[in-house]
Specification:
It is a single chain. By secondary structure, this protein is an alpha/beta fold. Helix content is about 40%, strand content about 15%. Strands 3-2-1-4-5-6-10 form a 7-stranded parallel beta sheet, sandwiched between helices. Helix 1 links the parallel strand 1 and strand 2. Bound molecules: 2-amino-3-ketobutyric acid. The site of 2-amino-3-ketobutyric acid (AKB) has 11 residues, from loops.
Length: about 300
């Protein structure tokens, strides 16, 4: 039986991925671990183990004792928070990744998933339909750690044969939890404000378009990548992945179709500079060609689905 350990289980993606894994492989096929337990009842049907992912011995012990074959290693300090403490972001993001890669190298686990991000790109990359291979010169420490992480993954694959797979996620939009510390987080907040009839103040510029993705597409892409035969996974750095793309102004207009009183006030802060350094949209043709990726949610479907889920 495939057994999956999710490290970083209490975060925005962790919660949703655990539910996806429970659905696909069964509740007992998933072990959740994090530095704190989340309060989602559905997630908590699976076993939970407290774990500091930067502690090499603890990671090794937990991975060994839980008997998992696959690790989804999601721990990271995101872009905006990382700028407040670059060294802590680097330490957390790199140390935890290498701890997991070493367990795979030593044969304790068979497969690793690790998320990269559109943050690997910087101001020198083409803005529209940013290609897979282009300048990766990020200006955030989070982006720097993702570029370095991709190289570590590729290195462990080439040198030790580690089966590590990765996706460059856009901003992820889901209704189960609030993200924390990212630059794309404004979009999730906008939905909560609309549902509660509250005013929304956005920290990005009205025209700052960014690549985004509905959480269902994010979970499905991850499970599809992990289920693909190893020989068709040609990229062991990370695959570009695209869902949809919108600016805060466009998001406001889509939400206002359902909540006509919803109005966004724009007060760009330091996060605007981060967003301005990232792509507007992504070319994910390698993922489409190599393992048949196809997103299901455009902006319209994403907005409708989020508002429905939150109002229920
Ligand atoms: C962030 O905004 O930092 C993340 C990301 C795009 O990786 N959501």
């Amino acid at each position: 039986m495939e057994k999956n350990l999710v490290i970083g289980a209490s975060g925005q993606l962790g919660i949703e991925l655990i539910l996806g894994l429970q659905k696909r492989f069964g509740i007992d096929s998933v072990v959740a671990s994090d530095i704190k337990k989340c309060d989602d009842e559905l997630v908590n049907r699976s076993e939970f183990i407290l774990l500091d992912a930067t502690d090499t011995n603890s990671v090794r012990k937990v991975i060994f004792e839980c008997g998992c074959t696959t690790v989804y290693h999601l721990v990271a300090m995101l872009s905006a928070k990382g700028e407040e403490n670059p060294k802590a972001a680097w330490d957390l993001n790199m140390k935890s990744l290498i701890n997991v890669l070493d367990c795979a190298k030593d044969g304790i686990i068979e497969k690793v998933f690790w998320p990269s991000s559109i943050a690997v790109f910087g101001p020198n990359a083409p803005k529209n339909r940013t290609p897979q291979e282009t300048f990766c010169e990020p200006t955030t420490i989070y982006g720097v750690s993702k570029v370095a992480g991709e190289m570590w993954c590729n290195y462990y694959h080439d040198k030790y044969g580690v089966d590590v797979r990765s996706l460059r996620y856009p901003g992820l939009i889901g209704h189960r939890s609030m993200p924390g510390g990212g630059t794309t987080d404004y979009a999730v907040e906008a939905f909560y404000k609309a549902i509660n009839g509250e005013k929304f103040e956005c920290y990005l510029d009205i025209h700052e378009a960014l690549p985004m993705m509905h959480m269902e597409d994010a979970v499905r892409s991850t499970l599809e990548l992990m289920a693909a035969p190893a020989e068709i996974i040609k990229l062991r750095t990370s695959y570009n992945l695209s869902g949809c793309s919108f600016s805060p102004g466009e998001l406001n207009d889509e939400i206002a179709k359902f909540y006509p009183d919803f109005v966004t006030k724009y007060s760009p802060d330091q996060r605007q500079k981060i967003a301005a350094s990232w792509p507007n949209s992504i070319d994910d043709s390698r993922a489409r060609e190599e393992w048949n990726w196809k997103p299901e949610y455009g902006t319209k479907e994403l907005v409708e689905s989020m508002l429905n889920a939150l109002s229920n």
